[in-house]
Amino acid sequence: GYFCAALALALFRNNILSLLTALIFLIPIFVAVRLEDREMMERFGEKHRKYVNNTGALFPRKNIGKFLKLLFFLKGDR
């Protein structure tokens, strides 16, 4: 959430320093993701490896078209 807020602020302010600040927010996020993945591999082993191969760390990796369609074109009918 912090990265999205910082990125939105940078875009709103149209300022390169704000954009750099937003990008700096990514560093601890990536570190935390790597540490969490390592811990999950120790706990769940092959099950977690399969999960990682099918999902993105921060954003959806597979079926991005379906994801975007869900975000922007879903009219409330399921």
Strand and helix map with partners:
Blueprint: H1 2-13, H2 16-44, H3 46-54, H4 64-73
Organism: marine sediment metagenome
Protein name: Isoprenylcysteine carboxylmethyltransferase family protein
Transmembrane segments: 16-35
Q: What is the tally of beta strands?
A: 0
Our count of helices gives 4
What is the overall silhouette? flat
User: Ranges with pLDDT <50 over ≥5 residues?
Assistant: none
Structural class: mainly alpha
The main pleated sheet reads as:
none
User: How much of the polypeptide forms β-strand, as a percent range?
Assistant: under 5%
Radius of gyration: 17 Å
Structural description of this entry:
It is a single chain. With about 80 residues, this protein is mainly alpha-helical. It has one domain (about 1-75). The chain has four helices and no strands. The chain has helices spanning about 1-15, 15-45, 45-55, 65-75. Helix 1 (about 1-15) runs antiparallel to helix 2 and helix 2 packs antiparallel against helix 3 (about 45-55). It comes from marine sediment metagenome. Keywords: Membrane, Transmembrane, Transmembrane helix. This is Isoprenylcysteine carboxylmethyltransferase family protein.
